[in-house]
Amino acid sequence: MNDTVHPLATLARLEATIAQRAAADPSSSYVAKLNARGVPKIAQKVGEEAVEAVIAAMADDRAGLIGESADLLFHLLVLLNAKGIALSDITDELDRREGVSGIVEKASRKED
User: Fold this and answer.
1) Is residue 68 a contact partner of residue 53, using CB atoms and an 8 Å limit?
2) What is the pTM of this model?
3) What contacts 24+ positions apart, CB below 8 Å, involve 21-28?
4) How much is the mean pLDDT over the chain?
5) What sign does the dihedral 49-98-106-93 (CA atoms) show?
6) Which ranges constitute the DSSP H helices of the chain?
7) How many CB atoms lie within 10 A of CB 101?
8) Closest C-alpha among 52, 42, 53 to residue 76
9) Domains of the chain, each with CATH number or no CATH
10) C-alpha dist (Å) from residue 10 to 77, 88, 109
11) What Rg do the C-alpha atoms of the chain give, in angstroms?
12) Is 100 exposed, middle or buried (0-12, 13-18, 19+ CB in 10 A)?
């Protein structure tokens, strides 16, 4: 791990790259190809990567969990971009929740 760079800086750079590639030619960019297939396909990929991360965790496969988590974060950023949600929107929500008990925070959510 590069201790001199904050981990969120890496995610911010990746977010910018995804935004740049989203409108590219689908034949030249995986991100553009996913976007061309729409939110349902991107969401499916997020789900697949989440399951693969869980499987790696349950198998006590540290390297696998790291790799699958990277895939999950990548695809989640692609999904957020497709929905017009910035990484800063997520960090703002996490900041809002900081210091609040998980039980209290869940109870405060509006039911759908």
Assistant:
1) yes
2) 0.85
3) 22/78, 22/81, 22/82
4) 92
5) negative
6) 7-21, 30-37, 39-58, 62-82, 87-97, 102-108
7) 9
8) 42
9) 7-85 (1.10.287.1080)
10) 12, 13, 30
11) 16
12) exposed
Q: Which residue has the tokens 């999904």?
A: 79
> Two tokens at 87?
């990484």
pLDDT digits (tens, 9 = 90+) for 14-58: 999 999 999 999 999 999 999 999 999 999 999 999 999 999 999
Structure tokens at 56: 């790696």
Q: Would you tell me the crossing angle of helices 62-82 and 30-37 to the nearest 10 degrees?
A: 60
CA distances from 21 to 5, 39, 46, 68, 74 (A): 24, 16, 18, 22, 13
